[in-house]
Amino acid sequence: MKKARIIGTGSYVPEKVLTNKDLEQFLDTTDEWILTRTGIRERHIVAEGEFTSDLAAHAARRAMEMAGTPAEAIDLVVVGTITGDFPWPATACLVQQKIGAVNAYAYDVSAACSGFVYALSAAVSAIESGRIKKALVIGAEVLSRIVDWTDRNTCVLFGDGAGAVVLEAGDGDAGVLSTHLHSDGSFWELLYQPGFGSRYPASEDGLKQRLPFLKMQGNEVFKVAVRSLAEVALEALQANGMGVNDVSLFIPHQANRRILEASAKRIGLGDDQVYINVDRFGNTSGASIPLALDEANRAGRIKPGDMVLLDAFGGGFTWASALIRW
Ligand code: ACO
What we know:
Elements: E1 3-12, E2 16-19, H1 20-24, H2 31-38, E3 42-45, H3 52-67, E4 76-80, H4 91-99, E5 105-109, H5 115-128, E6 134-142, E7 160-170, E8 175-183, E9 191-192, H6 204-208, E10 215-216, H7 218-239, E11 249-252, H8 257-267, H9 278-281, H10 288-298, E12 307-314, E13 318-325
Parallel strand pairs: 4-5, 4-6, 11-12
Antiparallel strand pairs: 1-7, 2-3, 6-7, 8-13, 9-10, 12-13
The structure holds acetyl coenzyme *A.
């Protein structure tokens, strides 16, 4: 069976930076509160006229450039996102058009902050089955357009961005060794966007109730996130007959620093094994893992043969891991 190898990574964040100090100007919050509770210092925010598909296309081009893969060679474009340009069509179709991946089929995956790992898993299966040879897997989000900028409990946490990888069918040891995916729909109400869908269709009244904005019960999310991130990471290692010392780099979903540190500790990982960039980007949901992966890759933190463990948790609830031999 062929393995799905990552042959290129790319990422993109919008130019505009919104610092905690900037938030102090219009919210009842402080830099100190945000930093100690979340580890976040700043986040990037899209400009007017800039959309999720734009961020995704930028990240995709960078990944294809590193891979040396022309757009026509891509068989599949899959985007993990919960903030697509439109409810439909899929943002993946818009990206396909923007980058000229004319021979690909394209669709989105909705798994919130686990979206990228879910999308990666689907692409890996398509490659391993022999159905396709090359895939572009993207996580892209514009959270700034679905957070309520009057709600200090949520809006300080999130940012915009995108990350992408090019996967190729290959022989040999390198590639995605396993993916593990889980969901528990009984937690859906702890983290969701109420409107506007079939349950709460568009209405003036719904707008007054602020239904189109993200809702979250942070404390509850925190507890389940730490437990699930640890369990699914250990599941990946066990399935591959490995231990924590085999992990060269652990790249968790960048939700906030306290979640990352608590789950890494529970898994038994040392600080030097954990990649953290939430301080500069905030929580970019489905974009956070590929954004961190690209940053680490370009900084030379990942070498051939290294074992990279991706670990995600998000609304649904959904959680997932991927173990990759680089
Ligand atoms: N600035 C100042 N004060 C604030 C702010 C703010 N931005 N936000 C909340 N507060 C206040 C609250 O109103 C509350 O005040 P009160 O005691 O007078 O009522 C106080 O701070 C404490 O609030 P808590 O919610 O108990 O604060 P906590 O320490 O739990 O931290 C946080 C909140 C950071 C959201 C935490 O629960 C958390 O990290 N949860 C995880 C949520 C998360 O990361 N979600 C992302 C999506 S899911 C994912 O990506 C995994």
